[in-house]
Each structure stands twice: as structure tokens, then as C-alpha cells.
Amino acid sequence: MRSAAEVNEQIRALWMRAGGSLSAQERAEYELLVVEWAAAIQSDVIEAA
Predict the structure, then answer these.
(1) Tens-digit pLDDT profile for residues 1-49
(2) What CA–CA distance (Å, rounded) separates 32 from 38?
(3) Can you spell out the DSSP letters for 1-49?
(4) What is the CA radius of gyration of the chain?
(5) Prediction pTM value
(6) Contact at 8 Å (CB) between 30 and 14?
(7) How far is Cα 4 from Cα 45, in angstroms, rounded to an integer?
(8) How far is CA 25 from the centre of its chain?
(9) How many CB atoms lie within 10 A of CB 5?
């Protein structure tokens, strides 16, 4: 699993490439990245506990 920081960087890069407006394909990619980011954050919290 990638770290939340890695996924966040990919999300930022996607938004930069898209110029702030996502196409349908980019939106689908964004949604997958957000799910992956949330899982990474949750994993970090569980490990910290």
C-alpha cells in the first residue's frame, strides 16, 4: 500500500494536469485515488494506535 502522502501527491498532480476541471475519465481516476488515500490514512491511524 502506498502512503497517504504519495497518493495525495498524485491527486495534486491530477488536478494540476486537469487545470482545475476534471473530465469524466479524470473524475473516475480522482475517485479511485481518494478511496486509496482514505485507506492509507486509516492504516496510518491504526498503526499509530
Answers:
(1) 899 999 999 999 999 999 989 999 999 999 999 999 999 999 877 776 6
(2) 10
(3) ---HHHHHHHHHHHHHHHTT---HHHHHHHHHHHHHHHHHHHHHHHHH-
(4) 12
(5) 0.84
(6) yes
(7) 11
(8) 15
(9) 11
